[in-house]
Amino acid sequence: MTDILMPALSPTMEEGVLAKWHVKVGDVVSAGDVIAEIETDKATMEVEAVDEGEVTDILVAEGTEGVKVNTPIARLKDEGGAAAPKPAEKPAARTEEAPKAEAAPAAAEAPKAATTAAPAPAAPKSDSGDRIFSSPLARRIAAQNGVDLKSIKGTGPHGRIVKRDVEAAGKASAQPATASASPAATAAEPRKAQSLAQMGIPDGSYDLIPLDGMKKAVARRMVDSVQNVPHFPLFIDCEIDQLMAVRAKVNKMLEPQGIKVSVNDFVIKAAALALKMVPEANASYTPEGIAMHHNADVSMAVAIDGGLITPIIKKAETKGLAQIANESKDLAKRARDRKLKPEEFQGGTFSVSNLGMFGIKQFTSIINEPQGCIMSVGAGEQRAVVKNGQVVPATVMTVTLTCDHRVVDGATGARFLQAFKPLIEDPVAMLA
Fold first, then answer.
1. 229-244 confidence digits (pLDDT tens)
2. CA distance 216 to 233
3. β-strand 15-21 against 53-58: which pairing, if any?
4. What pTM was computed for the model?
5. pLDDT digits (tens, 9 = 90+) for 8-64
6. How confident is the model at residue 79 (pLDDT cuts 50, 70, 90)?
7. Which of 22, 231, 293, 405 is an active site residue?
8. What are residue 74's DSSP bridge partners?
9. What is the DSSP string of 297-317?
10. For labelling alongside 303, which of 30, 179, 291, 357 has CA 20 to 30 A away?
11. Chain centroid to CA 400: how far?
12. For residue 7, pLDDT beyond 90
């Protein structure tokens, strides 16, 4: 027998969603056959069989969230009936990445505890001495939560007890204890969102759209960022009349090549150069220390169906405006088509979010951890400004820099904006 393990999409992946099975118990598969689909917070991948054989067990049901990497998800018997190589000697599956920005939500506490590396307890026996058929994952959850498998009726293949059965039994047994919990213990628990029924909104008065993986992941990441990152905003106004004039000339020159440079391309280039001028702003907080990045890898926020993704212009300080324009257009298109590779949206040292095209004058973005800063770009608009004692019109764009105070303090953030402002107001320097 060979255990097929939960694969890792990237070096940082810890868990995912077993989205779909393409096989069932009793199916015979060949090497290269797609047997399942796995989702993380940013991508979906297909799992292919490496060995030929018969699927004897499906250990993790479709739709299971928070499945830890390297957890057995299925079992395969080779066609000859002999024992297949152990997972440590030969992997049971390989993965083909098919990125799309659909996200896996954070796992609940029970699945987190259940999928640790501890070995599963031995299969228990009923009072009559017969073996109780259960998955290794189900046995681990039962052992860690004090659930007696003898009292559970399995809903898995051939009556096998699986993870969902143990979790359901655990919740049922926990209800009396929850009801008798002391007020002090209840007060210490994290606040949970109320249902609409609890808020007095009657059924039938609304349409409910279930949260998909991406929505859950974005919600989790944003809550974590707001709660865990001591952040603050800095605001600055930039006059962009010269930028608009230079952009028009550049686009006329590049028109035969089919290249069109956007205001956001100028912003990305200016931000990258400013990060090199103030390297303290091009940093990330880690438990081991402050990571000072060698290059300005600028993440740009792209809205897609169901959420948001941040593809990266890598080493943006080394690239010209035409190259940045080409890359940003290509990355944005492939992001919307769910064609990005993980390395194209994972990482980044600094983020830019631009809502100017929607007419938004000013806003403050939530930091994209573990980056130290994110820049929010508003719309350019005609405003009255004072120059040499005279009130004159100018096209002004408000920029907001949100900083992680553990990495970028107020003075450092201000120096970054002081470096950024002249670059964006006189962009000829960026063309050199």
1. 999 999 999 999 999 9
2. 26
3. unpaired
4. 0.61
5. 766 667 788 888 899 999 999 887 888 998 877 666 677 887 778 899 999 999 988
6. low
7. 405
8. 4, 58
9. -EEE-EEETTEEE--EETTGG
10. 291
11. 23
12. no
Query: Any idea which residue has 């956001």 for tokens?
Result: 264
Write the pLDDT tens digit of every residue in 400-409.
999 999 999 9
Residue 397 near residue 380, CB atoms below 8 Å: yes
The type of residue at 81 is: G
Which tokens belong to 214? Answer: 């991406």
DSSP letters, 52-114, are -EEEEEE-S-TTEEEEETT-EEEEEEETT-SPPPPTTTS-SEEEEEE-----PPPPPHHHHHH
Phi and psi dihedrals of 63, rounded to 5? 85, 0
Output the six-digit token pair for 181: 């919990």
Which of 395, 209, 184 has its CA nearest to residue 305?
209
What's the pLDDT at 108?
Answer: 37
**170 φ/ψ angles, rounded to the nearest 5 degrees:** -65, -40
- How far are the Cα atoms of 191, 194, 210, 285 from residue 201, in angstroms, in the given order? 20, 11, 17, 43
Beta-bridge partner residues of 307: 304
Q: Helix, strand, or coil here: 432?
A: coil
| Angstrom distance (rounded) from CA 137 to CA 184 | 33
- Residue 231 is a catalytic residue: no
Residue corresponding to tokens 């083909």: 96
Query: What's the CA gap between 421 and 54, in Å, rounded?
Result: 64
Provide mean pLDDT across the span 283-292.
Answer: 93
CA distances from 39 to 17, 63, 345, 399 (A): 5, 10, 15, 35
Q: What is the pLDDT of residues 120-170, one digit of tens each?
A: 565 566 556 666 777 767 787 888 787 888 888 887 656 778 778 888 887
Q: How many CA atoms lie within 13 A of 113 on its CB side?
A: 12
In this prediction, residue 402 carries a pLDDT of 97
